[in-house]
Amino acid sequence: MLRKQLHELSGGEILARDIRNEDYQIILPQGSAIRKDYIHKLDELGITEVFVKAGDSDVSEIALLRSETEEAIRETVKDILERHTYHNNQELAELGEAADSIITTILEEKQVVDRVFDIKERSADIYQHSISICSLAILTALKLDVEISKIHDIGVGCLLHDIGMRYISIDYNNRDVGTLNRQELMEYKKHPVYGYSSLKDESWISDLSKAVILYHHECLDGSGFPLHKKDIPFECRIVNVCDTFDTMICGIACKQVKVYEAVEYLKGCKNILFDGKIVDVFLGFTAVYPAGTHVLTNEGDLAVVLSQNKVFPDRPVIRILKDRNGNDVESEIIKDLVKIHNVFIEKTLN
Q1: Do 312 and 336 touch, CB atoms closer than 8 A?
Q2: pTM score, two decimals?
Q3: Which residue has the higher pLDDT, 123 or 327?
Q4: CB-CB contact of 239 with 245 (8 Å)
Q5: Which DSSP letter does residue 329 get?
Q6: Percent of the chain with pLDDT over 90
Q7: Which of 40, 84, 171, 285 is most buried, with most CB under 10 Å away?
Q8: How far is CA 7 from CA 48, 84, 182, 336, in A?
Q9: Are strands 345-349 and 2-5 parallel, antiparallel or unpaired?
């Protein structure tokens, strides 16, 4: 399924989802061909985008980076980092272009300020993780009105934030930091220092990007590492929130958790470990229950999340799949949890 802006349609496309009005009444049903004369009528009705067939999905996922864009940037970042050696840093400057590409892609996304994004738990390597927190930190910084030159520096710092992991002497792959012995943990906690030390004398990377590398594990209360520093730059605090969240949902050096669990962790640590203002902005565009998530409601119904409500990321639109007795529903039942106040999500299901 592909999300298409109305102006991108040429006519003849097959709808992958019903087109509905704000009361969820069907205007044009799934499976219909979109005739050219429909496009103008849809525009008059205020319809700005539709979903056309290109796969089997029935949910309206909104990703921060399109998959093909993310994969292209990942290959670039991977190639640069894998060619890098401790005493050969100049080629790392190319990562500035990768960061700018992410910034441009996000800025070109229409209505980016109004969207709630479906960020899902997943397995990820160090390259995907770096790109993910780069995207998250850039969007957070944009919403916080950070000046664009600093956003560039944040992006570069994110792409390089874990470069020190290449220099530690322990195998951290697929390991929970909590299972490391004291000596291994001490070595692991040195990776921000190793990364910073490898780049501190380079003139092509800004002081802010270097600070991101050094401080991305520090916390407001001084409980972070490696320096237990409380007073770190605001931009580094942005990266800290994004890195913590993505690390948790990817299970990098920790036990993997569900998105809603990571969200609750950030909420619980707001103004203790993390800057509250940053956490609020971050959670404002992060779907607590990403599209496609299977959930159980307080009424006992099994449902799938269809789409998000931008003002209430924890109150999505759901479609009921099975009733409380485990029976398949005979007709389509869609519930917008913003409009139905007595229904809420009790838990997510695997």
Answers
A1: no
A2: 0.82
A3: 327
A4: no
A5: P
A6: 61
A7: 285
A8: 8, 44, 59, 27
A9: unpaired
